[in-house]
Design brief:
The chain contains 24 helices and 25 strands. It is α/β, with parallel strands linked by helices. The protein has three domains: 236 residues, Alpha-Beta Complex (Spore Coat Polysaccharide Biosynthesis Protein SpsA, Chain A); 190 residues, 3-Layer(aba) Sandwich (Rossmann fold), CATH 3.40.50.2000; 144 residues, Glycogen Phosphorylase B (Rossmann fold), CATH 3.40.50.
Amino acid sequence: MIDVFMDLSAHAADAPALQNLIARSALPRNLGGIARHVTVVAPAGRLRHAVSLPRGWTLAESASPLPELSAALESAGRDRVALLVLLGPVDVSHEAVGVLRQCLERDPMFGFSLPRIACANRCCFAGLTRHGMGATSWLPRKILADLPESELMVEVVGPCMLVSSEVAGNFGPLDRQFECIAVAMIHYMANARRHGFRPVVANRSVVSIDDLDCKATAVQPLPELSIEDYTLLLRAVPDLDRSWQESRSASWERFEMVCRSMTAEDQGSRRPSLLIDARNAGPTFNGTTQAVLGVVQAIRALQPKWDVTLLAHQQGAVVHDLARVYAGWPVHTTVPNRSFTAALRLSQPWHIQELVDLHRVSLVNAYLMLDTINWDIGYAAPRRLEGTWQFLADHADALLFDSTFTGQRFLERFQSARSVPSLVTHFSFDPKEYVRDNQSARTAEEKFILVVGNSLDHKDVRHTVDALVSVFPFRRIKALGLTDAVSPFVTALHSGDVPDLEMHRLYATAEYVVYPSFYEGFGFPILTALAYGRTVLARRSALLEEVAAECDRRGRLVLFERRDELVELLGRLVHGEAVPEYPLGLGLTNGQPKGWNTVARNILEFLESIVREPSRSRWIAREHAVQQLMAYRT
């Protein structure tokens, strides 16, 4: 048997409504067969004489139920029975109470057990909020299947709480400085927790409240925690916030928060939401920026059914004028405080915090890998990149690769990623999307060779320029990625600093374009030079053969393996001799290279397939790993 305290002091009910509520609660399937004594607190209004009470039930009329609850706790503790606390007209069955009692019996230090709160139809349940107070959203009941049977929490109250007899008998009356009964119970729980007694949420125990309707997107089982009560709580319980943040309570709050965006879509109340992480598009003009902004612009052009938000690099957002270019899309330079259906990072992550950021705001996390170069070369990689990418491989929901070559490199190096859904999505091969109309017809004032790369060793710019200068000492050479000129005939251009239009002028007017890189993920310079009809000399690789198969048949592609071979081929070209050309467009269907529009459509269709049946258990496992990482970091 248990005791029951039912607070209806804030429930505006006349005598007949109160009588019906009491009669329903007293049924054997509800409290009738398990309640030893029931205390009902109703608003003052002479209801006591108008309501008939079952045996063992008492009715008190009061606007402040704290004294009556304190008395009920004292009585239950003295008689060594559990006390069921109901805040409002809660419809609770004896089966639900039985599950709550089983939770308490599992561990002597479980002091409170709480059920989940369902709508009147019991098809949805209210999402968890911090300490159980304030507005939340409905979640479909099927999500409970992804949750454990029960979970230990810190201070969290609800309309229904079962208090163990040991707690009820040892922690005195409620503190009457709190006006709200729920806040007083938070303080009471905190006191018990500081003595070792913890609350547990029973996910297989479900109760409902008549006036909570899931047709409304928002629900508030208990009122918002006021600033005054919060200030009092912090004074009385200085570790209140820390206890929540450093416990599993915060994890489950995050999980249910990210599930809410999925629920809103299921109910048709809003479109799916997508956070695009474009933070790698910094204030420079390089291949990463071209890839990131190319995809973003293509998604924008599709006018997708998603509600899109951009997360941008602070200086990059200014340089690329993102707020104006993508007007109508929110642009943030810090992680927004809301949940999304999916988060898509349009380049590889470099730091573990970037993965944690997206995990905390989205149920589905997808990453586009542009290459694995920095991991392989090592010296240019951020610290701890091994751990970052291992975490990515273990916990990402989806991976995208800009080429089969990149995908093979990543999966060979991080083999746990083989089980992750993935998609190879080449970028645009349409030459019209790589040229500027005002540059196409330009001619150079003098002939020059353009060498494209940057200062990293695998780009091989320095050694390539040295080799070319040794054989063609009086040929003009413009080298992107060279730090200093090695000859009066060589112009050194700093990679990333050359404006976009100037780069197009160089591509459009170069006599030959040399791309000597040993290792790439896609190769925008080759596509741009070919789009301008240039002759491109590039180092042979499996990637280059993959890309060439999808290129439009304009320009010429000449492959080399060694620098001396490059010099020989270039010498033959300079003297008008024939050289072997690598065939272009062998993989084209209908002779049409795909454009950015196709890229964006493929990405969104892939994301839609992932979010259609999201793996909530994967999010939970990732959260456990994040908590372990944070424990080490702090």
